[in-house]
Amino acid sequence: MAIRTGASLAHTINTVPTATMLALGFGAQQAARIVRVRRVLPLNRPGFQGG
Is the pTM of this model over 0.70? Predict the structure, then answer.
């Protein structure tokens, strides 16, 4: 039997499913926009400090 670590529950901005974004309160259009943009922009590149 495998030990559960919760790793499958940890999401980053680049891996969070659309359904989770909707559950967090994002609108459907906003969630779709986030998914589109994150496929183009490297949001977790090394050395990036973020806002």
Answer: no
